[in-house]
Design goal:
346 residues; mainly beta; Methylamine Dehydrogenase, Chain H; four-stranded antiparallel β-sheet; 14% helix; globular; Trm82; tRNA processing; nucleus
Length: 346
Amino acid sequence: MAGSAALDVSRGGLVVRGGSRFLATGTDRSDDGSFFIYDCSKAEKKPQEDKGTVVRRCTSLTFTATDEKILVADKSGDVYSFSVLVPHQSGRLELGHLSMLLDVALSPDDRYILTADRDEKIRVSLFAAPHNIESFCLGHTEFVSRIFVVPNHPDLLLSTSGDCTLRLWEYKIGKELQCYHLNRLRNPEATPCEKIFAVSRITYCCQENYIAILCDCIPVIYIFQLDDTKKQLIYKQQLTFNHRVWDIAFEETQGLWVLQECREMPVLLYHLENGQWQPISKNEVLKKISNNLHENWTMVEGGSPGMDDSFSSLYKTTFDNMTNYLKKKEERVQQQLEKKKRRKNP
């Protein structure tokens, strides 16, 4: 669906829109592993709804460029492919990781399949033969939360992680081109090891090469621009909100859509003016969507996760056993010294 935008209104699943007519949703709140495919071209009459199932719950969904297949990554670390044209056909296991998969992406020509896992790795494999690993993109120090192949520069990959970094790669050779420490944008004195948040969404505008990223636990959107000649990211702007932001999406003909936790103003629309993204209020499409969400707010709010529903459980846990050992050792030494003193001075 070129020029369209998909916002996750349900907040109870993953929503991925295909290139022309299909919509896929997969629950991320249970372990039943179900996902659904809808034919949006028939939505005004009777939507075509087809159900597929994987072993564990879905963590990411994406369509191939032709919309003939959908790839589903699950919690156990596997990626399955399902036919959209033959909806009741069983899924095919394409590849597997030893840890949970958090995102899956395809190159625009469907030549490469990219997978991101909890163990800091991004794997690049040939889609036709997924056992053939082309490269690894290594450098993140925490789970890789999102990956995104730049559609109009298909050799470039964006990735985000629990280490609070946004990285740019030439993924076919596993070369890191740039690393942005996002926590320093909020606090210039922050150290690279400070882990405050992870990115939950990456969206891209091809017209001006703009990138918007949404963080999972702070109401902030960071705007970057890709310099395609230098293959570098340029930080442009920070958008701050008074309410929790649920999702964001660029639409080439409209601007940047923002879905937030606010009944009175659930959707915001930003346009580019003089090099800055500014909110607009007079827009018929915006008015129609906002009114619709306002009237159905009970359903929207009921499907939203709590504030604690984030990537917090995925961070590595470290145990400092040495500190406790040295402390107890010092206590034993002091006790022994006190005993010796008492013996000398009964």
